[in-house]
Amino acid sequence: MHLILMVLAVLGQCKLNTKPHQNHFENIFYYEDDYYKNHLRVSKVYWNANFNKRLKDVDPRYLYYKDGDIKRYTKYDKIGRGAFSQVFIGLRDDGEAVVMKELKPMKWQAINREIQVLKAIKGTTNTLQLIDAIRNQNKKQNATFIYQYLSSVNLLHLFGKLELPKIQLYMYQLLKALNQVHSKGVMHRDVKMANIIIKEDDTLYLIDWGLGEFYHPKKRYNTRVGTRYYKAPELLVNNKQYDYSVDMWAFGCTLASMIFQKQPLFKGKDVYEQLDKIVAVLGTEDLLKYLEKYDLVYPDPPIHTQQPFTIYIDPENAHLVTKEGLDLISKLLIYDHKLRLTAEEAMAHSFFDGVRM
């Protein structure tokens, strides 16, 4: 057993830095940089962010993490819940208030992956930072994550109450968070209002990294991720070779919902109707071009004529709509993820001229 542990420790220190080579644990081949530049099925940004990382940092089977002591924390009021967790306010034995996220029983690989993602984004701005993690408290595969406590409100609770300057301020901060985590090689994959909190000083934080994943060029990912209303078209047509741009579609949905005062923007009862709701605005013609470009098959696609985003304007939201806002939305909510704005490109858009920092 001691020998096995030593071997795993050595493997965990291995880096993914020899190109071309195969990372046998992820079944991915890495080649020379020129191979990836402008490749149709590779992200146009940060495609090499994970090339030089050690296996223990990106592969859940080789994670080394010294668990904390659950006895140091006392759980108090429940403040939230999700599909895979419950969230409580807690107190550390030194008197520090914390947030305790109790995960429901799940595969240990998923728990380790979330820890790895949280370690990877450590130090990024506008993201909630992990303080401690405690795994395997009983026979079930579960864990408790300890985060910094912030006096804040969920963005959903502010929906319909914000004027344009606040929307611009919050959305710019969200882009800062996305650009930084993408630069670390991480996709969030569940960007939505419910996963955004705002502090009293108007600082925004992107939370809940349970679906976070490391990006590797040309890797085939699970498309059954994220919240249906925020799912990018590539997920709905089962394009498994997606990238950071799934977060930018979800960002576009969030921005458009706040401007048009329509939450959610696209509301389908299942994934098929979800795509239909999107096609009803973006049209069938561009969808067919997208499917052909990426050699994708989607039987019986919805048939609709493209509509401008101005169809959402009404007397209740007109004061929030600007030509700059409409232009930004139109460059985010597009089928072709390679043409979708990146977080850095969106930050430079004129819509944010008044709040850029």
Any overview of this molecule?
The protein is α+β, with helices and mostly antiparallel strands and 357 residues long. It folds into 3 domains: 2-62, no CATH class; 70-148, Phosphorylase Kinase, domain 1; 153-352, Transferase(Phosphotransferase), domain 1. It contains 12 helices and 12 strands. It has helices spanning 2-12, 33-36, 55-58, 108-120, 155-158, 164-183, 233-236, 245-260, 271-282, 284-293, 323-332, 343-347, and strands at 21-23, 28-30, 73-81, 85-92, 97-103, 130-135, 143-148, 152-154, 186-187, 196-199, 204-206, 213-214. Helix 8 runs antiparallel to helix 11 (323-332). The longest helix has 20 residues, at 164-183.
State the secondary-structure class: alpha+beta
Largest sheet: 5 strands, antiparallel
Strand content: 15-25%
Q: Kindly report how far apart the N and C termini lie.
A: 53 Å
Question: If you average the pLDDT, what whole number results?
Answer: 91
Please give the count of helices.
12
In the CATH hierarchy, the architecture of the largest domain is Orthogonal Bundle
| Mass-distribution shape | globular
Q: What gyration radius follows from the Cα positions, in whole Å?
A: 21 Å
Instruction: Supply the CATH superfamily name of the largest domain.
Output: Transferase(Phosphotransferase) domain 1
Please report the total strand number as a whole number: 12
Order of strands in the sheet with most strands: 3-4-5-7-6
Secondary-structure element string: HEEHHEEEHEEEHHEEEEHHHHHH
Helix content: 25-40%
CATH class placement of the largest domain: Mainly Alpha
Spans of at least 5 consecutive residues whose pLDDT stays below 50 are 4-11, 14-22
Number of domains: 3
CATH topology of the largest domain: Transferase(Phosphotransferase), domain 1
